[in-house]
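Summary for the steering committee. One of the milestones for this cycle was to obtain a three-dimensional model of the protein with fe (iii) ion bound, which we needed before selecting residues for the alanine scan. The sequence and ligand used are listed below.
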Amino acid sequence: MVNSLLTDTRPAGISIHAIPAFSDNYIWLLRDEGTGCAVVDPGEAGPVIEHLERAGLQLQYILLTHHHFDHIGGAARLLQAFPDAVAFGPVDERIDFPHTPCSEGDVVELPALSLTFQVLDVPAHTRSHIAFHGHGMLFSGDTLFSVGCGRLFEGTPREMQAAMDKLAQLPPETEVYCGHEYTLSNCEFARLVEPDNQPLANKLQAAKKLRQAGEITLPGTIGEELRVNPFMRTRQPPVVRAAQNIDPSATPGASVLGVIRAWKDAS
Ligand code: ZN
Ligand code: FE
């Protein structure tokens, strides 16, 4: 599934920054050493325009993972403010401004930044949710969070399990840039599922420290998620046992994922 055009490392000169939006969203900004840049999931235009003006940047590209307002709400205004910018997003009629529709197998090229991303279909949070992978980075929107996964608004546990399995195949050092700062509360829930998971206990402490210092907890990595994220560990005996304590008929995989997702929704 890894496209030969893709490289594992970020091109020299490309840096990534988080622009906070709303109460806990992150808009990811990829920029070069000149004035070129791209943003991922601009739920709000204001903070992006402010950042670009301060840094003297011209917006060239917009990447969108799913149609929810807190991820696309600023895109139309950004496209007005930067008429040369182009947007890429899911195949979904609920996104009603010009964008190139992308799905599994597509390769999104951002030539001005020398960046190329592979598009992955990861439906479950929404039916058309996509993720972008390339250069050692994954933009996972509201599908894979640090130590959690998105709610199943338009999909099934089976679909979210398939998404987790797909993302688990990425190189373990892949950095995960998700849409929200949920790490601390996700760790607290994950501790209920796996009280004896030491890497998870360490992750909780690290996240606490960062949040107390006013810092962001992202990105994590795929390798770390495999050790601490209960939604990526639905075949691990401690997670299966925790699910079976709630529903004795739970079986490893999608069934366990469904039980712990419902548990988290209710907690
Ligand atoms: Zn969402
Ligand atoms: Fe969101």
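Key point for the committee: The mean pLDDT is 96.
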